Amino acid sequence: MLKKKWRIFLILTILFMLIFSSEAIAAPGISVSNDGITISGTDDPQEISSSIKLLLLLTVLSVLPSILIMMTSFTRIIIVFSFLRNSMGTQQIPPNQVIIGLALFLTFFIMTPVLGTLNQEALEPFSQGEITLEEAMDRSSDTIKDFMLKSTRDKDLALFAGIAKLEAPENLTDLPLTVVMPAFLISELNTAFRMGFMLYIPFLVIDMVVASTLMAMGMMMLPPVMISMPFKILLFLLVDGWNLLVETLIKSFTG
C-alpha cells in the first residue's frame, strides 16, 4: 500500500511538470547522447520555440520540489512547528531534521486523499487510454486547485486576480495556477502566523510570571528564560501538546 502511494506521488510529480509545458518530448535542434546535451543551430522559428520550451521545462523541473511543497500543507505545518520551538525557548530542540521530517510525513498524510482522487480521476483513466494527456492534466490541475482553494481566502484570490486583470470566472477552479498558487501561499502564511500567535500566549504568560517572581525575590541577574523553560515543557507535556497540536493542524485542512 505504501509503495502504491509513493508511486502515485511520483506520477503526480510528472503530471504536474507536464502542466507547465504542453510538450514532453525532445525539441528539434537538441539531442542527448553519451557526450551530453547538444544544441545545434537553426534558422527555423518553430524549432527555436520548441528548444526554448524544453529549456523552460528543465528549469521548472529543477525547482519542482519547492513548488510542490508550496502547493501542499507543508508550509503551514513547518511554520507552526517553528513558532512552537521559539515560544518554548528550546533553541534547536527538536532539531531541524526532526521538524522537517515530521512536517513531510504529516503533509503526506494530509495529501493522501488528494493523491487518491488524482489516481482515480486522472492517472488510471489516462493509463488505460480512456482520456488524453491534455484531459489528464486538466483533471489533475482542477484537483490540486480544489485542495488549495479550500484554504485560500477570497481576499488573496481577488488580489492576484486583480493584478493579473482577470475577469471573475464562474468557478474558482477556472482561475489559472499562476493566480491560485500565490494566493494559497499567502493564505497559508496568514493562517500559520495566527496559529503561532495562539501558541505564544500560554508560554508568554509563564515568562511573565517567572520574571515577576524573580524580580520580587531580588534575583534580577538570573535569566528568566532559564527558569521558565522547564515550566513551559511541563505545561506542554501536561496538556499532551504534540497530540493536540498535530490534531489541530490536520483538522485545519480536513475539518
- Helix-strand pattern, N to C? HEEHHHHHHHHH
Classification by helices and strands: mainly alpha
Distance between the termini: 25 Å
Helix content: over 70%
Count every beta strand, where a strand is a DSSP E run of 2 or more residues.
2
Uncertain stretches of 5 or more adjacent residues: 1-6, 17-28
Mean pLDDT value: 75
β-strand amount: under 5%
Q: How many helix segments? A: 10
Tell me the overall shape. Answer: elongated
Rg (C-alpha, Å): 24 Å
SSE layout:
Blueprint: H1 2-19, E1 30-33, E2 36-39, H2 45-62, H3 64-70, H4 74-88, H5 96-127, H6 133-150, H7 154-163, H8 177-216, H9 224-238, H10 241-254
Antiparallel strand pairs: 1-2
What descriptive keywords fit this protein?
255 residues; mainly alpha; two-stranded antiparallel sheet; disordered N terminus
